[in-house]
Write a structure and sequence with these properties.
Length: 248
Amino acid sequence: MARVKFPTAIATVDDLRQDRTYMLEEIAAIEAALGINLSNCGGGGSTPRLDQVLDPTADKTFNMGGYFLEFDFPIVGGHGGLTLYSTFAGAFPYGGATPLTIHTNITGSADHCIAVGMDLYGDGNGTGSRAGSYIYGILIENLSWTAGPVEADSAAIRIKDQDGMATVGHEFALLIDDQSDSGAWAIKTGLGLVELGDALEVHGNLGFFATTPTTKQTVSGAKLPVDDVMASLLAALAAYGLITDSTT
C-alpha cells in the first residue's frame, strides 16, 4: 500500500493544490485496496460507523490473523454494550433467520475448544443499597413474535443433538460444573412444567415438595409382623417429602 505523503512546507497556493491532488490520489488508492469508501463518512462524530466505511451491499470478512478484536464501551442508563439488529424479509430459509453465527475452526492440537467465552466481574467500588439487584451472565427476555401464531414450538434456548463429536468420554448437551458457593444452585427454575424425555439419574441427596434433600434411606425391621418395617418405610418416604405420615 502506498504511504501518504504530508508536505513539510507550503510555499505557494500551487504547492497546496498539488499536495491536495496528491493526497486525493493516495486516499483513492487506500480505498481501492481496502474496498472502502471514505467519502460518505460524515456525521455521527469523528469516528465513522462501519456502515459508512464498508459497502453494505457486499459480504465482508475481517481476517484478524493472530490478533483479537476488542470492543470497549460504557453503559449509560442501563443500556450499552454490543447490540445486533437483523432484519429479514420474505420466507425464512431452512434454519430460520440467525442474526449472529459463530464458527470456530480448530486445526492442530488443543486442550480446550471454546466457541464463546464470557467473564463477568465487578471492581467492588459500588455504593448504596443492593436490595433486589441481580447479576446475569446471559439474560434472555421474552420472545416477541407479532407476525401471527407460531405453528410449532418456541424456545429461548435450544440445544440440538450433539452427535458429531468424536469423544472417548460422554457428550453433554449441557454441562454444569460444581457450584461451591454457600447456597449456590446448579439449576433453579420458577413456575412452569418440567418434563424429562428420558431416564433420570440422581447422584446426590433427594427431597420433594420443598423438603430439605436427604441421603438414601434405609428401611429396617422384620417383614413379619409388618408393623416395624412399615413404620420404617413410612419414615423413609416422609424423609424424602413424598408423604406426610399421619398413621397411628
